[in-house]
Design a protein that fits this description.
mainly beta, Immunoglobulin-like, seven-stranded mixed beta sheet, 10 helices, elongated
Length: 683
Amino acid sequence: MTGIIELGALIVSSLATTTLAANALYLGTLALAYGGLVYGTSLLQGLFVEKPSVPKPEDGSYNLKQNVPSLAYVLGRVKKGGDYAFLEEINGIAFHIIVMAAHQIQGYVQHYLHDEKATVDGAGRVTSPAHFVFNGVDHYVVINTRLGLNAETAYPDIVGNFPTIWSNDHRGDGLATIRMSCATAGSENYLTIYPNQMPVPSSVIDGALLYDPRVGDVLYRHNLALMRLWHLTNPVGGKLGLTDMYLPDWAHAADVCDQIVINRSGGSENRYHGGLWFRAETDPVQVGRTMDQAAELVVFERPDGLIGVHAGEYTAPDIRLVREDVISFQLDGNTRDSSTVLAVRGRYTDPGNDYNSADAAIYGNPYVGEDTERTKTLDNTAVQSHNHVQRLQKITYIRANAPKISVLAHYEAAKQVPYRRFVRVHIPPKMNEVIVEITATPKLSLRNMTIEFSGIIVPDDLYDFDGSTEEGEPGANVEPLPRGGVPLPQNFNVTIQNETLTGGQKAAYALATWDLVSNALIYELEWESVSGSEPARSTNSKSGEVQVRSNYLSDGVQYRFRLRAWSNGANSDWTAYEIRTATADPTPPATVIGASATGGSGQVSFSWTAPNSPNYAGVRLYLNTTNTFVGASLVATEYGPPNIADGRVVTGVTAGTKYGFIVSINASGTAAAPVATGAITVT
């Protein structure tokens, strides 16, 4: 953001500054935002040179080919990746230790593997996405965590598997870490289990514990004022102590951040809550500026040398300057087309978009009576609510179009101006009881006993906001579709086909068919005997084909068939089994001739003449207690050549009147029509 007031985070110079270091800190925090400071800019040029900027939410990934990384700090709730501290493999399992933050955190809210949300059970096993679990039993990815306590515990399986390089002394004190293990998958299932190769972990984290002066304790908070207090009193920020801070101001600012506001949907949320992460090498000026802008804070040095803060609220001025107090003033109405802002665009971190950046609704109208777009952009990664960013956009819009004023006043009347955010000026007719928000460091002249300051004229309802009418509707987030994987074959069917081999012998095979989905897919057909007497075998189709045939099948054996699709090394699930019986010869032989049977003592003697059919193989013999084939019981099977007289004696038959049936069959067991023998008396 360019300019001054739209940052919403102003540094007011103090008359009580006593050391160069204090000036460098307090002026330096926002000196780069103001061109009118007396000495802040030149001093900062040597202190903050080409420091990395505050990371974007999308910057939370990592590269395995990393240099030694700068430590990461997490405030509030954010999503981020981490930095590798350990990566080794043993017995087909890769072990990863990844540092997520350089301090103790509150906890882990959600783990991601690539862009997929991961569900972890009590043992750390990843149970979803489902492709990380094979056959519902084998869990290929396991995630364990450490919060970064002052005295942590080493991961026991790392110590056990790598005792020569990792011991119980490798605890990672003060480092929040993730330990992830990935088991090797077989080549056949590798891309099914790991469709994106090795998982890339990231997590939604509840970050550092913050000192809250309201309760005098260190707790987890989303409060932006407490984050700013933490930053100023941390070695990666202001390097100050709590004794350097005027804590009543900070307690009040925290209360303002916790105030409840109503958003466009009628729900309630806190006024200035958010979160961000950054590295130790990140420019502390930019980190502080980001939090100040998000919470509308003004950090300043008080007359007693302590660091105070103006909260993000309107405070009625207790200083009123009238004509007698003012030596001179300049007023700029700020109505030129070149400077008028028609709309403000906002970008923020959207938790509903997996904590990635999102565009807010435009505040204002970028085109008013002309085709020229005159807009400002407010981009703040610490803001995590659409209502929040819209409130900041409205304030930015008002400030960008506000009249500008500079005032030279007598010292006695204006001596408290350097410690105020708002003052009242009454110089009619041009300025009648106007509210001036100070936007640059006031200048004290001891020679002339004057104070000079500049600012903008703002309304006393600067912070008023009606979410139901002013918030606008945010743009829709792109919802990533869940991974579909390779599609399951559709309309899978199997038919038994026959063909004649050399020499006239017939053989059976299975022909599988399915619907065409994509020419990029190939299909694998698997078959095995139901009895288990034959091993499972398979064959693949060619791309673009909608059928594939099996090898020759054993005649008369019952088989089960299933199908799956393949694409680029990944496969779909198997279809349900289709059960078929292999029949090499589906044509029945002719019926037997001269079928007859006679009874005896506990036996029946069948006789017949085999038909003169080339495919005749034998007969099946049946008995029933009624003269009908329905319900008859098979009592024997007799094989023999065609066109001969044949017979068979069946013993163990109970006494009584029986009725026999003789059925000719071929080698595949295909049966002809039954031929009755008539009544049989068994004694």
